[in-house]
Specification:
- The chain has nine helices and no strands.
- The chain has 189 residues and is mainly alpha-helical.
- α2 runs antiparallel to α3 and α3 (72-83) packs antiparallel against α4.
């Protein structure tokens, strides 16, 4: 005779409080500074990380998909959103001091990107690699995959996920510099 034990399968998310998710998330974003000079031109002025994210998604959609452009101010907002948690003011200050170069290079780069993108891994990898052809601060080094995927995420939010070390840790990859490895990105996609 076999002894059969019945184990109930319980959905761990069934009792998750989805209605308070954004509020709890924003409470954890302790380094977010709504009055940051990097967000000065945004209107309405975002009060939380989540508001900034949603506002940037809308701005990029309006600017890129209607005009094939992203303003320097929008790019600065994206960089702030990506980097503020790392408390990296020198990096953002360096960016601010190179706005003129960005104003000439950003349109050239964005012109290389398609209006629409499907979930084709190799096409996404090719777009990430295109960043190195342009002298755009924050996204032109071989170690800039997290910033590149962030910009691509804002351009194609339904298609390109953001790759960074926290995301990789969440899926069980904790190798040093894994977020800078194009092959890890390929596998993640």
């Amino acid at each position: 005779a076999f002894l059969v034990e019945v184990i109930a399968i319980i959905d761990p998310l069934a009792s998750f409080n989805w209605s308070s998710l954004l509020q709890r998330y924003d409470q954890l974003c302790r380094r977010f500074q709504p009055e940051s000079s990097h967000l000065a031109v945004l209107n309405p002025h975002p009060k939380t990380d989540a508001e900034l994210y949603l506002q940037l998604v809308k701005r990029v959609s309006a600017e890129f998909h209607e005009k094939k452009l992203i303003s320097v101010d929008t790019y600065e907002g994206i960089l702030y959103w990506k980097l503020y948690s790392q408390l990296n003011p020198p990096a953002l200050s360096f960016y601010a001091n190179n706005r003129n170069r960005l104003m000439s290079e950003l349109p050239k780069m964005l012109n290389q990107f398609p209006n629409e993108l499907n979930r084709d891994v190799e096409k996404i990898i090719t777009l990430v690699q295109k960043f190195n052809r342009f002298n755009i601060w924050g996204s032109c080094a071989k170690t800039a995959i997290p910033v590149c995927t962030t910009l691509l995420h804002f351009l194609y939010p339904e298609v390109v996920p953001i790759l960074d070390k926290m995301v990789l840790r969440a899926v069980g990859i904790d190798a040093p510099n894994a977020n800078q490895d194009i092959n890890i990105l390929r596998r993640y996609l």
